[in-house]
Design a protein that fits this description.
The structure is a single chain. By secondary structure, the chain is an alpha+beta fold. It folds into three domains: 37 residues, no CATH class; 127 residues, 2,3-Dihydroxybiphenyl 1,2-Dioxygenase, domain 1, CATH 3.10.180.10; 81 residues, Roll (2,3-Dihydroxybiphenyl 1,2-Dioxygenase, domain 1), CATH 3.10.180. Helices cover 14% and strands 35% of the residues. The strands form three sheets. It has an eight-stranded mixed sheet. Strands 11, 12, 13, 14 and 15 form a five-stranded mixed sheet that branches. Strands 1-2 form a two-stranded antiparallel sheet. The two termini are 26 Å apart.
Amino acid sequence: MARKLGSRGSCILRVAAMNALGTNLELFEYAGADRRSWTATAGEAGTFFLLLRTPRPERIVSRLFTENAVVRPVEEPVFGYEIALPSGIQLAIQRSTSGDEDAGRLIGAVCLNRYDYQGAVSELQGTFGLHQAGEVTAFGASGVLLTGAHGAQLAVLHGHSPSPRPANSDVGGHHVAFHADDVDASIDALRLAGGYAARGDAETITEGPIAGDRWVYLDSPFGLQLELINMPDGMLPYEAEAETRRRPIAAGVLA
């Protein structure tokens, strides 16, 4: 199970699912797993951060000063702030321009080394059907903003100072999830595409608040861990009483 979860040894996994400004985000706690010291800063290859573009970033930042966040103003190439939250999450808040369709949406950003970056952009466009919607620079790393017909956008950047990628159970560990109408058929399709390897068999959760969720982690040819997941909207037990629900997932995302 440790290999399937991408953790360093046996652990108890807790997950907090969030709807963060219209983006489905999950925070993981791997209790009991070994953790390696992870000192890389956002922007280095192997790291992950969140990006928010808004017309008035200073209004958001003013609230963070009271939460013991470390805030660094940035003037170029885009005005904004680079922030280290006490939780360990790194956040870039940038001033949006007039007509910026991404304004107000939280975007996940992954940083890869120079060898994996080109392969990731090529695979995510060719195999997963995403297309380039713009360019991104934050934390000293530059890259592209990718989007598809459904779901959240993803920023893929050429990181600097290459460092080992953290395991999921390390602080800073991360992966990118894709909804699949049929998880098993999607695994077969990615195997045929070449370079993708599932971490065990797909599994359906049978008990608890997300019973019915079918998932599997995969290793990709460009070094980023992925997840295929099917969580049918309106059919999960937690939805009966939850005040907030995930952003709905449209069928046909990855068939």
